[in-house]
Amino acid sequence: MPDDLSRQNELDILELRGEIKLLCQKIDTIKGNDLYHIQKSIDGLQRILWTVGVLVLSHLGVAIKTALWG
Fold first, then answer.
1. Cα separation of 70 and 63, whole Å?
2. Sequential pLDDT tens for the chain (70 residues)
3. How far is CA 26 from the centre of its chain?
4. Cα(56)–Cα(70) distance, rounded to whole angstroms?
C-alpha cells in the first residue's frame, strides 16, 4: 500500500514538472514574440495620439488668435 502511494506521488510530481516546463515555454513565447508586437501597436497608437494632440493645439491657437484679433 505505501509503495503504491509513493509511486502515485512520483507520477503526480513528474506530471506537474512537465506542466511547469510547458508553462515556462509558453511564457517565453509570450515574452519574446507577443510583447514585441503589443509594444509595436502601442507605439503606433502613441504616434497617432501625439499627432491628434498637436492638431488640436494648433486649432486652439488659431481659434484664440481669431477671437482676439478678428
1. 10
2. 678 888 999 999 999 999 999 999 999 888 888 888 889 999 999 999 999 999 999 999 999 999 999 7
3. 14
4. 20
Amino acid, res. 27: I
Q: How far apart are CA 33 and CA 40, in angstroms?
A: 11
Q: Closest by alpha carbon to 13, among 25, 1, 21, 24?
A: 21
Query: What span, in angstroms and rounded, lies between the C-alpha atoms of 59 and 11?
Result: 69
